[in-house]
Design brief:
With about 70 residues, the protein is mainly α. It has a domain of about 30 residues. It is about 45% helix and about 0% strand. It starts with 8 loop residues before the first helix and ends in a 28-residue tail after the last helix. The model has no long low-confidence stretch (mean pLDDT about 80).
């Protein structure tokens, strides 16, 4: 007897299919993040202007919005 230490052909195929599905999920998620980052163009949001920051608040380092 082998003691069940070896995987059957079906077991190896199942293992490779699980690995492939996991890789496809990771690649798909990363592709989606890159796609959203490239295609989205957020509007200007209200924030404290540089130099107008009160104590304890933060402002944008360099705003791309016109004042």
């Amino acid at each position: 007897m082998n003691g069940g230490a070896t995987l059957t052909r079906r077991g190896r195929l199942s293992l490779w299919l699980l690995v492939a599905a996991g890789l496809a999920l990771v690649i798909g998620a990363n592709w989606h993040l890159v796609y959203v980052a490239v295609t989205s163009q957020p509007d200007c949001v209200t924030h404290v202007r540089t130099g107008d920051a009160a104590r304890g608040s933060f402002s944008a380092a360099q705003s791309s919005c016109s004042p």
